[in-house]
Write a sequence for this structure.
């Protein structure tokens, strides 16, 4: 198909790249502009780094082997390196030179030496063949940094060199899955939402109490729980919310079939085979009181979501801001086959269309219906805020990646003013920025006084990556640092910034 016949300018093929050579020793980049003298620290990012192994190709963007990216900022210079998470999945696949572990959307290549009885047996040995490919996010637990996905296995990473230190299995509390987006509180406590089968299947909030000496996972405890509205079809949740007094759980009608999960004991099938979308069903919001455990439910018209932007309490209401879709097609859009055929699919752009919406929950009402109101008419995903200051508190601004791939300004970064609905955009042709991470200026007073850090890749030049530094107030470019990579530069999902003093 020629360029004139293309339906979309956005190049989704950036998700299908392969890093075939890790950068073991940091390489120094070429700086344009001037980095703020106060900006010192390390940005670690996580995402799928290998789409093919031997003759096998992963079938979904979520499935590629986890590759970590490290941008170290020090004294006006930046270095870059990348390494794979050395998970059991990585080791098995690389040793076999094929995909031998089933992923979210990819079925493993059958091993003719294994019978159905082998598969059943492995299930009762704590799912020996379950993937532990942690390719979604990075979060701190105390002074340790972990690569995560939605299975209850996480890998500790040394942020100084990206070496895989070890793994934690936390399925004593989180049996089926957990979100890839826990909440890190100001005192260092970490909360996450998962599912437990203790006393029947429930959504549970697990607390990992902060410790700078002991193991935060040994003290994990369930602090809240709720029964799914559909007992055999609990909602799939990629994130959740928290306020001063409530845990916020949104049950959208994208659900996991428990019968389908049981069926996977007997047949090899990807996790996505148990996901089912019900766009004719409403979405339910559940508030769980953090002290009493009391649960209240509310409904809204059908919305689907991956990421909650922020939640807070104000004037007798709980405010919930999230990036919403009209249906669950966003999952479908990330299949390899869908990406390869997008230029002949006029509906593809609609599948990816996302808008920030606000729900206002009146605390003096019970079981009422609330309206999801548009915050700003601009595509936005992978939202970030001034997290340390604003998480679970009233806020004004959030930042994200433009999601309107059907428009000419796709591939942008966006700043949204939740008070006015106004927004600002950063855009450069054929350039694809990652989720923008806010870093506050020391002694900042204003919420948006700081910089945004984003990793750039290009559509036409697949051996280039850069760190972009923007002024968070106006999205003006302050500096960028460019690197040439020995193999393809890959796209990433999420990351975390570690100030310099945290790495000493």
């Amino acid at each position: 198909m020629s360029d004139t016949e293309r339906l979309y300018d956005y190049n989704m093929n950036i998700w299908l790249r392969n890093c075939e050579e890790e950068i073991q020793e940091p390489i120094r980049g070429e700086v344009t502009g001037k980095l703020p003298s106060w900006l010192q620290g390390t940005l670690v990012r996580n995402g799928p780094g290998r789409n093919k192994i031997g003759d096998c190709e992963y079938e979904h963007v979520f499935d590629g082997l986890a590759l970590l990216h490290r941008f170290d900022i020090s004294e006006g210079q930046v270095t870059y390196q990348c390494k794979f998470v050395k998970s059991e999945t990585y080791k098995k696949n690389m040793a076999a030179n094929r995909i031998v572990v089933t992923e979210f959307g990819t079925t493993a290549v059958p091993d003719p030496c294994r019978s159905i009885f082998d598969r059943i047996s492995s299930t009762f040995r704590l799912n020996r063949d379950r993937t532990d490919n942690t390719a979604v996010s990075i979060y701190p637990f105390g002074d340790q940094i972990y690569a995560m996905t939605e299975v209850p296995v996480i890998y500790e990473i040394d942020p100084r060199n990206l070496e895989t230190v070890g793994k934690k299995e936390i399925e004593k509390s989180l049996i089926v899955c957990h979100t890839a987006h826990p909440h890190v509180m100001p005192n260092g406590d970490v909360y996450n939402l998962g599912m437990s089968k203790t006393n029947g299947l429930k959504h549970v909030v697990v607390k990992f109490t902060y410790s700078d000496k002991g193991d935060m996972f040994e003290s994990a405890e369930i602090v809240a729980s709720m029964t799914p509205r559909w007992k055999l079809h609990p909602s799939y949740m990629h994130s959740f919310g928290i306020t001063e007094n409530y845990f916020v759980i949104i049950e959208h009608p994208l659900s996991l079939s428990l019968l389908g999960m049981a069926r996977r004991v007997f047949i090899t099938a990807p996790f996505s085979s148990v996901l089912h979308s019900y766009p004719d069903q409403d979405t339910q919001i559940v508030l769980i009181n953090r002290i009493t455990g009391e649960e209240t439910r509310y409904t809204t018209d059908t919305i689907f979501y991956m990421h909650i932007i922020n939640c807070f309490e104000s004037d007798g209401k709980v405010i919930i801001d999230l990036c919403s879709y009209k249906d669950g097609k966003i999952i479908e859009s990330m299949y390899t086959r869908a990406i390869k055929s997008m230029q002949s699919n006029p509906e593809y752009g609609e599948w990816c269309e996302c808008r920030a919406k606000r729900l206002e929950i009146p605390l003096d009402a019970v079981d009422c219906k609330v309206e999801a109101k548009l915050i700003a008419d601009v595509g936005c995903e992978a939202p970030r805020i001034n997290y340390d200051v604003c998480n679970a508190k009233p806020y004004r601004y959030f930042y994200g990646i433009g999601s309107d791939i059907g428009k000419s300004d796709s591939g942008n970064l966006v700043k949204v003013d939740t008070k006015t609905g106004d927004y600002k955009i950063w855009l450069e042709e054929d350039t694809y920025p990652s989720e923008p991470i806010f870093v506050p200026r020391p002694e900042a007073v204003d919420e948006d006084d700081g910089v945004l850090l984003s990793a750039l890749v290009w559509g036409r030049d697949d051996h280039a990556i850069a760190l972009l530094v923007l002024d968070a107030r106006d999205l003006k470019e302050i500096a960028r640092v460019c690197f040439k990579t020995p193999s393809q530069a890959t796209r990433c999902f999420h990351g975390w910034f570690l100030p310099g003093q945290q790495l000493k």
Summary: The CA atoms of residues 112 and 196 lie 34 Å apart. The chain has a mean pLDDT of 91. The radius of gyration is 22 Å.
